[in-house]
User: Fold these one by one.
Assistant:
Number 1:
Amino acid sequence: MTSFQEEILAGIPQDRIPEPKPYDRTINHAPKRKDILTDEEKALALKNALRYFPAKFHATLAPEFAKELKDYGRIYMYRFRPSYEIFARPIDEYPCRCKQAAAIMAMIQNNLDPRVAQHPHELIIYGGNGAIFQNWAQYRLTMQYLATMTEEQTLAMYSGLPLGLFPSHQDAPRVVVTNGMVIPNYSKQDDWEKFNALGVSQYGQMTAGSYMYIGPQGIVHGTTITVMNAARKQLKSKGIAGTRENMKGMLFVSAGLGGMSGAQPKAGNIAGVVSVIAEINPLAARKRYDQGWVDELHDNLDELLQRIRKAVSGKETVSLAYVGNVVDLWERLAEEHIHVDIGTDQTSLHNPWAGGYYPAGLTLEESKNMMAAEPEKFREAVQASLRRQVAAINKLTADGMYFFDYGNAFLLESSRAGADIMADGHFRYPSYVQDIMGPLYFDYGFGPFRWVCMSEDPADLAKSDELAIKVLAEEARTAPEEIQGQLRDNIHWIEEAGKNNLVVGSQARILYADCEGRTKIAMAFNEAIRSGKIKAPIVLGRDHHDVSGTDSPFRETSNIYDGSQFTADMAIQNVIGDSFRGATWVSIHNGGGVGWGEVINGGFGMVIDGSDDSARHIKEMLFWDVNNGIARRSWARNEGAAHAISREMERTPGLKVTLPNHADDSLVRDALKGI
Ligand SMILES: NC(=O)c1ccc[n+]([C@@H]2O[C@H](COP(=O)([O-])OP(=O)(O)OC[C@H]3O[C@@H](n4cnc5c(N)ncnc54)[C@H](O)[C@@H]3O)[C@@H](O)[C@H]2O)c1
């Protein structure tokens, strides 16, 4: 047995605790969280933390954990970080009694890989607070359970806490994850701060807490599609054809080079435009630069503006990072009347008061200190900064920029800050789902389809890419006009994916496909595993940016107009349905993208191993996973969805979906007159 395997099997050491670990200043750490607990609650947090360990260690650990709570606002249990390196290993290297559990261990370790995770030592994967576990004891215990579980057990995960292994059966999920589930009236931002500080709940974002994060590639794809379609929209409004050639020389401006937002410059390059992305944290900017995801770093606005003018006039394909505050960038662009074609923002505004957004006028360090020491003053600084940012953006949109909200609660928080963002009771600007992803993608069942090769061999990934292209090209031959463009964009994406070095961490890929595409690609993979053309199992999954799994009124379901966008039945139904149709693990989260209390989203992971069982799970589960959302969108009277579900009912005899009848608007208005 390797020492890696031994350490996993040891779980939380019972005889001797590891030596304390020095605080590593070379990596990116989570900001100090605000001091929100009363003295009594602090005692409770400490007792909660100590319950993971035998009483004989409490005298050593209690003062140490108390200090962590004081210094960082959380108890991470740094001492218990494992001594081995964390990254996704080939599946055979994990100690296990069932391969499904080994695959989940690899997915967990990929999330926590320092190349992938945003704040790896605080177990934060992306978005500033998207956690996979609350502390290192939970990590150790979970890995130990997974290493020892059989196919007749299910592990229950409560916001990072492995509650235990419970007897179940082979077809049941191996793991059921819930994150941040609270009584609805206790779902405010400060409730999260408090529950998380107490060690009883966490914000799992979505792919962080459901072990499905594949680094920024996951979002490069969605961002590429969004930037290309935003560019097409802009060109169309000027009567110009939306070809890639015509996109050259267009200027795209945004903020954020973090976990997700780091994908923006890469996507800009794939679309062939000039992108300028502001990032206030030099470490985050440098990480993306070193990875080759952004071409140039600039910290001088005068020089940057000159560089922008040159890039635009030369129609270069180039991505420029501004290492500074995005508000300064927007104001300068507006002052100098630079023509910006496409604008958006991807700071972590779902988490505005605890490090998601850094206000103008303060350095990064000043902000970090103020948010912990003077939270009210910090809140005012954020809101003032948002008002300035919106004012500059408004000037540029008046000059012809197309601006959209990029799913980070920018419009929502700006409106709460009193910025000039409303017109006629609505936001001045659309969300990218309302304008682009909803009508073109989600309503037709197109959504993220991810896979990770458990051999961790790039040759398997290349083989799977080939299979995916073949399936999509085949589908495109007979597909209706409405989805031809979506299929073409995705075939182009996969053809380019290998060349663009998109893999960070495990050998993973993503594309967008509808139910037919997802199912046929998965079946082709299963066949290739069965015949040995692909060496090891593959994990299938997705993110929240999809037709079914997510109820998010300011993002994924922002193009639902029957009033049901604030309900969350779809996400819950999605996960329950997936769990008895063959998912290897399922997860449901409060928050994810837009913020705690603002969204519910469900996810799944499925290990396929070339078996007949895998083939059955693929067919049954993917069908439900996609079509339950199309049915809901069709009921909400979305045209594309009505088209897609009718097509599906023709193909699938067992499917009977309730369809809406359409009422005449004038008849409805007349009926209400005089009442
Ligand atoms: N569009 C999508 O498809 C999509 C998908 C997932 C998440 N999101 C949302 O996008 C947001 C960003 O996600 P992420 O994972 O990149 O988060 P992140 O926290 O890793 O990155 C955000 C970055 O913005 C920087 N930043 C904050 N304020 C700034 C300012 N004023 N000026 C310049 N830089 C600033 C931060 O330093 C940070 O590096 C989140 O709200 C997330 O929920 C969008």
Number 2:
Amino acid sequence: MTPDIEKEPWTAAATVVDHVVRGSLARHLARGRGGPLGTTGTVSPVILRGPRVTLRPATADDVERLRSIRDEPEVSRWWGTLEPGELEGFVAEDTTFAIETGGEVIGAIQYAEERDPMYRHAAIDIYLTARSHRRGLGSEAVRVLARFLIEERGHHRLTIDPATDNVAAIRAYEKVGFRPVGVMRSSERGPDGTWHDGLLMDLLADELTDGAPESGSAPGP
Ligand SMILES: CC(C)(COP(=O)(O)OP(=O)(O)OC[C@H]1O[C@@H](n2cnc3c(N)ncnc32)[C@H](O)[C@@H]1OP(=O)(O)O)[C@@H](O)C(=O)NCCC(=O)NCCS
């Protein structure tokens, strides 16, 4: 299903990437690569709707709810421990969306864009409260944002990079159409201070799935 995209006037001023953005987006795009990349800039704020989830620009009002989600062990295991001011910076990015279902905030999703024309692509990162895991909501949110990035932002390639042992994330992204590219050895430091491997996955525009049941997974007669 093609998500509805509502363009809305949005009052939050665009900010410059000058603070720490947590998650793999930061590791791969905002730090260390050089070049004109980042999570903020000239993007018009939008509301994106899928069958069950709505992605709307995150605001300062979301900080406490997102803090409680980030503090859940099922989430901090993959996103690390919050640093002072981190969430305030995260919601101030104009590429950060709160994920809602049934009017409740269940998580957040963010993208970052590589703006060098030779390497142009976008990367996605996401977390949901554990109570909403395994209901297809994570893959739906990624699909809705991926469609926006392809159709509205004109990207031909998207990336995402879960830890190699994050089975649920890898499966969720495969359902959207992402494919494994390769293992990035010792690319991410976990909350216990040790380095672990990340799996780089990417998706080309014509590989995005529509969310229909995969062939072979439909119930038999
Ligand atoms: C990753 C995340 C966004 C996925 O969202 P989700 O709504 O749970 O994902 P979905 O329900 O769409 O898909 C999860 C898939 O993994 C499968 N899965 C979940 N846990 C699993 C496990 N331990 N072993 C095997 N498969 C598992 C589910 O069965 C489902 O596959 P299926 O639909 O074929 O049955 C969510 O789990 C999350 O927020 N996790 C914590 C933070 C995190 O890991 N963020 C990603 C960092 S890259």
Number 3:
Amino acid sequence: MAVNRIIQIFRLDSLYSFFRKDKCSILMFHRVVKDVRIAGIEISEESFKSLIDYLKEEFEIVSLNSISKSEKRCAILTFDDGYKDNYTFVYPYLTERNIPFTIYITTDFLDKKAILWWYLLKDLGKDELVKSIRNGEIEPEELFRENGVSPEQYVEETLNWEELKEMSRSSLVTIGGHTTSHPNLRLLESSGVEFEIGVSKQRLEEELEIPIEHFAYPYGGKSEADEVTYSITEKFGFKTAVTTVEDNVRDQQSIALPRIPISGNSSLGDIKVRLSGIFSLKNYLR
Ligand SMILES: [Zn+2]
């Protein structure tokens, strides 16, 4: 990526970090896999391992609950949706290294009612429809019906309740909510938003017998979560909630914390640049 190259050559990221003195980076992952199919939500095991080595050297990797206690520049690892590899790969790998992490769960995925339309689009070679689905112009269920594919085809991509329960008992793992069905919350009436957030929180608390105090907005950009959504999250008593707006943590409200997206196409060099927070500048250009 040309912009990244220019930033690296002129060390603009280091300069930016020096002046901004950002406290913490919340990294956003979804899956860690052997072979990357959807770069936007997957990173390879190899890249993940080198990133963790780098973070261990340069950052203090803390849990979401310790965000304000860290003295050093801190990093927080978060995984959205609840994919199988979070249990089969991430959990043992990070546990062995005593590294805390958070998983945000969409409860329908664990109830095997998952509509993982992004994998269907990939298989159909129709990635260009991603935006139309996120905007609510196409119903994901309709896409499955039209193409004669059962949503069950993708159920094995996600965790099951037993796996989540086991992880929830680890002091290194924080479980957060990520709605019931992963909708674009801005397309719903406030009663719908309350249902999606409240029912999934209650479900997780009953299944796991722990308080659920953290939340991630599905899709999480400015077009999918706004002040109204934030206030509903606050009403449900969440301590923190994360968006997908790209930035480091400074003094933002705790129910709209920005994150640094990690994608399969990024090299370690690209990720280092991102961790400086320099790409947050684009948030001000709109
Ligand atoms: Zn998600």
Number 4:
Amino acid sequence: MTLTNWNGNVTIAAEDAWTSVTSVDQIEALLAGTKVPLRALGSRFTYPMQLRCPDGTHGIVLDLPGRGVGEVRGDRLLVTGDTLLTDVWRVFADHGLEPAACPPVITRQTVAGALATGTHAQGLAGGTFSDAVTGIDLVDGTGTRHWLTPDDDGFDAAVLNLGCLGVVVAVELQGRPRTDVDCTRFTAPADALPEHYATWSRDSVAAKSWWFTEHDVAHTWVAHDGSWARPASVCGDSGDLDRVVARTRSQLMTDIGDGGGQTPAARTLEKFLAATDTRGTLQEIFHNGIPAPQLNMEIAVPLDAVPAAYARLNELLRSSATKLHYPVILRSTGPARGHLSPAHNGPVTYFGFVAYMTTDGHLTTARPLFDDIQRLLHTLGGWPHWGKYLSPDLLPAPTNGFAEFRTAVDRFDPDRRFANDTFYQALGLSDRAAVVSGGRHNG
Ligand SMILES: Cc1cc2nc3c(=O)[nH]c(=O)nc-3n(C[C@H](O)[C@H](O)[C@H](O)COP(=O)(O)OP(=O)(O)OC[C@H]3O[C@@H](n4cnc5c(N)ncnc54)[C@H](O)[C@@H]3O)c2cc1C
């Protein structure tokens, strides 16, 4: 059977080019017994360019004992790397706990896959999934097994590893008592975002905004402990929002050829209808994504750069003939661990962009616009989400923790068994051929 992406429309590994492994011994044997390049794969939600196994690279899909069950140790949970995030939240909940991180909108990703690309939600504390990680069990490219904790050298590479260090076979996660928070929902003129969004993020548990660029309004959910009040100056009413959503949905349906509004893409907008204040766990409030085939990109800019990013994006999107299918999503996180985390140096706001695929499986013409957005936001200190659409050739000159990460690759995978063309190009890492012929990058 060929191995596809989550949606079944892109081949990730040919029939004989991947193996389901059922034990850590089998991974160690694969590393010791062959020299072939390997690629660990999770639920395959990452943009296919980063996942596709080139000729000669063998995919590994984990199916480890204890998957989805884990072992609760006090307020911590040890799970296999292939455990789905859904199971993490469920097992913690069975013990009256929740992970010490806000859930992303979908939780069908694996724990190891989510970590590898820096999967996040929102919240300046606990906004990134890795914020809950207290230990990582890694079989590196030499077959050596490491238990890495936040105090260890190597943790900051392993916690956002791009699958380039080896195979994460288990992860320990910090839990905390499962708690309800209030969620205030309101719609405001879009220009409230540059003025207020950073403050809402700083003053709350988590703040997420959706900017309907065609309609100049922003809808916001602020999760808080009861002490936050919506500023009187930025109130709107949900009736206005329902009209905006209906128009956005109808434009989307026309663009993707969905006559009846029954595709997952059209359904993604339904959560905004009749939005009212609510109370619940972070999972009940924010875990509401409907996976739909899409081109999906996020760029994180420093939190203080939100007003500039808003102004420049506003200009660009207004002048573009291409229209987005979903409001621009604003989510703030950080600081977060990880040499390659966009939030490594301080809090950031991710701006998220979505263009859905047509019902007959084609992408609309959004990619050039997405590239223009990358160029623009990079000039404001922006960095991409590593698991979504990105153009390695458009990245700014290597900076941040790239040098530290390259050093970690030299340490954990000196023979480049887990090389990945896209990530290597982005990071300025030399490939396997160069290493084998003696040109290892030591930067
Ligand atoms: C519909 C949709 C919604 C999404 N929502 C969000 C969101 O709310 N927030 C967000 O931040 N992101 C989101 N994403 C992105 C998603 O969280 C990331 O792409 C994530 O990495 C996917 O995890 P996965 O299990 O599918 O891993 P894969 O996509 O299969 O792999 C991702 C990376 O992890 C590596 N990897 C996988 N398993 C292992 C392992 N055991 N050991 C070492 N490396 C491994 C792979 O080599 C690859 O580099 C979304 C994506 C889609 C398509």
